[in-house]
Amino acid sequence: MSRRPSSLALVLALAMPFVLALGIWLGGHPQWLLDPVANVLVGSPDRRVSLEALDTLHDKYYREVPEGVLSDAAIAGAVRHLDDRFSSYLSDKEFHLFQNSLDNAFEGIGTTVRGVRGGLRIETVYPSSPAEHAALKPGDLVVEADGRKLGGLSEAAATALIKGRAGTTVTLRIRRGDRTLTKRVTRARISVPVVSSKIANAGGQRAAYIALSTFGPRTAHVEVAAALKRLIRRGAKGVVLDLRRNGGGLVSEAQQVASMFLKDGVIVTTKGRAVKTQTLDALGNPIAPDLPMVVLVDRGTASASEIVAGALQDRKRASLVGTRTFGKGVFQEVMPLDNGGALDITVGQYFLPSGRNLGGPGTKPGSGITPNVAARDNPATPRDEALAKALDVLAGKL
Fold this sequence. Notes:
This protein is of the alpha+beta class. Helices cover 32% and strands 26% of the residues. It has helices spanning 7-28, 35-41, 45-60, 67-80, 92-101, 130-133, 155-162, 220-233, 251-259, 304-314, 385-397, and strands at 88-90, 105-108, 111-116, 119-125, 141-145, 148-149, 169-176, 179-186, 188-191, 195-202, 205-212, 239-242, 266-271, 278-281, 293-297, 319-322, 330-336, 342-351, 373-374. The protein folds into two domains: 105-191, PDZ domain (Pdz3 Domain); 195-397, 2-enoyl-CoA Hydratase, Chain A, domain 1, CATH 3.90.226.10.
């Protein structure tokens, strides 16, 4: 025999949707709540003030501004206030472009860049790329993209404004010495060679030359390993690893690459306020643990590439040739958000086997790594003077 619901149960059932809707509305309008209730539903007074301000802008500003736009601006402003050039907020569109850039194929203009005060400094222009067709050159400073000033933005956020769908255009303002140029560039799909390799001559001996452009996911160590094994089979008696203009990437890839040349021991230690201290050691079974080795570095050598170069220098495994490196002593973590965007923020510092950190105070660039032998390439000549010096140093080890 079925029982009829009581009057109280019926009232509660009818009231639940209203109570739920009221709770959601009050959560988004904390100014209407008593402090004890607001602390439970919304959080601290500071957080409530932030929500109240955004709510007021949305409701009272003279023209309507979508809540998503206000939320994006608020998060980006908070990250900018950290005064950390390595941290950024990526909108859903920027995050999508950022994820694509981690691979060796992306859609853009075909350059590698480094964030500097005032914009992005072009480090490399890839052959046959839109950037080369537009006569962009290494050393150019990109200060605007489609009218948006790049100064003050993080490197990731500024780069995302230049990248975009193949076939679309971007108008760039360039500073080249005392001149200011405007370049309209049509984006294309760019395939970046992660590794280039060849047999080189080191004082009459065969040497493996391997240039690595980035420490991207799954690509760096796989391609370096394949090139290294192939060149050893061809009779290479030493190795030159070229990390010039390599802005870094994943710490795990740095561990993999360094492990090809180290039998055991520490490569890097990472520490942070909210991340567990972790020491990454050589993984064992190195490919070339005993071959004489030189690493080429320059001012564009940063982050994961500094970890590899620094570990090999600290462990007395390789001589470094070139110029002082960038000096990045912190690492970031990408944290996706519910709106499709992400926070790419500094979460810790890394320390080389000797215990040194390459960064400056806080998140500022530091002194970097000083090479064992100074050498600099002259871009005005067809000869690579720094590579020639590296091969001379390697010849002395053979």
